[in-house]
Amino acid sequence: MISTFLIILLITAGGTALTYLYEKEDSLMVRLAAGNVIGSAVFGTLVFLLACAFGLSAGTALVAILLTLAPAALLAKKDYRRRFKANLNKARGRLDGANLRKLLKFGYYVFIFLVLWFFFERAMLETKDGIFTGGSQNLGDLPFHLGAIFSFTEGNNFPPENPSFAFAKFTYPFLADLVTASLMKFGAGVRDAMLVQNVFLGFSLVVLLERFTGRLTGSRVAGKIAPLLLLFSGGLGFAGFLRDYWSGTQSLSEILWKLPRDYTISDKFRWGNSLVVLFLTQRSLLFGMPLALIGLSKIWEIYAGDDEPTDHEPPKHKHETAAPKTFSGEITAALVAGLLTGLLPLIHVHSLAALFVVCAVLFFFRYDRWKQWLAFGAGVAAVAVPELVWSLTGSASNLGKFIEPFFGWDAGKQNFIVFWAKNIGLFAPLLILGLFLIYYTGKKNDEAADKQSEIRNPKSEILLVFYLPFAFLFLICNTFKLAPWEWDNIKVLIYWFVGSLPFAAFALAWLWEKNAALKAVVAVCLVVLTFSGALDVWRTATGQINYQVFSRDAVKMAELIKQKTPPKALFLNAPTYNSAVVLAGRRSLMRYSGHLSSYGIDYEPRETEVKRIYEGTALAERLLQKNNVDYVIVSPEETANIEVREEFFDKYPVVAEVGEYRLFKVK
């Protein structure tokens, strides 16, 4: 674990240096949070390029680390070094003179870090009985990510081929898993590497969301509230908890330590809690969202910027040096931010799609700043287009399955309004209140500033228009299906939520600052907004869930496979998510159909062939030769899911055997 910490710190240093190229002013904490995400994105991309040429090894990963760290040389320049020292001095100043306010602020971040640590610590559990997960929604996703990671470390899968569907390009955004695999090349275990990576990315997300909210609303209180609403998101499912408690015989303490189910995700509740249903299961989103927030912050800066930038902007704090704000400087900053945002296709392509919609809408409201828009767009395109072309060339995904009319997202037969009211609860009225208050307070401030003028400062209108593309995302996600499985619309829909958070948080902050009575109202609102999500996060973090993913024999068989078969061998296994082949990092002719269908892959013809082979039909041998299969595994996963005629395989040599697991060499 120590090596993982050190490597992440090194790549964070390089990423932090890059923040000085696109951001005039920011605290050291925000720069470090952005630096962690940027450094990881640059490092992962460099590893991908180097591994495609030379394979993945400690040597190629080390070269990628050194290249990622190279931007730190910027601090040798006087201007950048001065700004870095100003950040350090300001950070030291905030630590001087401890008081209650500073302790509470420090405690806020400690609380967030501990929640993330104990939560992500449950993602993967290695025991003497096999591999388990403590995430209620992670049973299928954990083996998927392990399959990707081990395909890089054990199978040297470069250029990446889909380990779950042989002969097809791996088009799923895999960079989060590739970074994990790279960390493992320096001796880290897969569990520790994922844990540290997830916690650092999660903490960076919190800091960047706080900063994004503060920039939009001008409220530090709103900035603190927004991450809490994201991490503990959930609707009115806590009503089910109250029913379980009142109808049962357990005390409150007893039921809290043995919660019977999740309260944010079920047949009726589909929004879920972001940590439980998204960030734990979809590691690419955990990586992509903080990078998208960096892009959104730059988009806000371009959209809300002055028409004529001044030569210099005076320092806001005594320790800071005036940062240049020239027109050419704005263009350069937009270009650099675009280049970094353009790394998203291999990280989380839905994040890039959401940013595209935001840019496309806002451009028409500030086309006078077309040069800044062009610089940002050119930067994104320069990196994203080649990555997208590479991903789409040779893909097995049928893009025609991704977009079709579909009303109501995942509401099913429920009333649309009732469905959303249950799933997000008080969030909707607070969002509306926040949008109203933005307009109301802007108008009131303008009138107080100049009662004689009939021309209002456009700040409030700017904020309201900025929200339009996020509202459009909500509309699109409730009108069309953007993936073969309609629930996957949440990968875009979550950006409506992120864009809405500053306004809902602003409403709570505005009420909080009024009087003591409204503080009590805000406290009640926060409880209602976060109660359901907090229950689900608590259930995970306290170890109340233990789902077995791989048995002890499956783990042992995976080790034998790594020892006795070549890295590029092709395996036949049942179309399940938890085959022992996953842990060996070898390719499968086909794995879990649920994953394949969600990526728009037409898997049914191959699934039929897999079943015919295991049935030992007259065509079995011909199908083995046709698909160039090297090894066939027969295990409890096969016998439980498909018909297996085991005597058909007796003519082939047994390469490895553990308990009920047998591996046959058929080529």
Describe the structure.
With 667 residues, the chain is mostly helical. Among the domains are: 225-279 and 406-541, no CATH class; 549-665, no CATH class. It is built from 27 helices and twelve strands. The chain has helices spanning 2-22, 28-54, 58-69, 78-95, 100-120, 141-153, 175-184, 190-217, 220-231, 238-247, 252-256, 274-279, 283-304, 327-341, 349-363, 370-392, 416-424, 427-449, 459-477, 490-512, 516-541, 552-564, 580-584, 593-598, 604-614, 620-626, 636-641; strands at residues 125-127, 130-133, 312-313, 323-324, 404-405, 480-481, 547-551, 570-572, 587-588, 631-634, 654-658, 661-665. The protein has a five-stranded mixed beta sheet. A three-stranded antiparallel beta sheet has the order 1-2-7. A hairpin with a 2-residue loop joins strand 11 (654-658) and strand 12 (661-665). Helix 8 crosses helix 20 and helix 18 runs antiparallel to helix 19. It starts with a helix and ends with a strand.
List keywords for this structure.
667 residues; mainly alpha; 5-stranded mixed sheet; 3-stranded antiparallel sheet; 27 helices; globular
In brief:
It is globular and about 85 Å long. Among the domains are: 225-279 and 406-541, no CATH class; 549-665, no CATH class. Strand 11 (654-658) and strand 12 (661-665) form a beta hairpin.
**Poorly predicted runs:** 308-324, 451-458
Side by side, the strands of the main sheet go 9-8-10-12-11
Oligomeric state as shown: single chain
Q: What is the β-strand count?
A: 12
The helix content, as a percent range, equals 55-70%
Overall form: globular
Rounded radius of gyration (Å):
26 Å
> Distance N terminus to C terminus?
40 Å
Strand content: 5-15%
What is the mean predicted local confidence, pLDDT?
92
- Give the structural class: mainly alpha
Number of helical elements: 27
What kind of sheet is the major sheet?
Answer: 5 strands, mixed
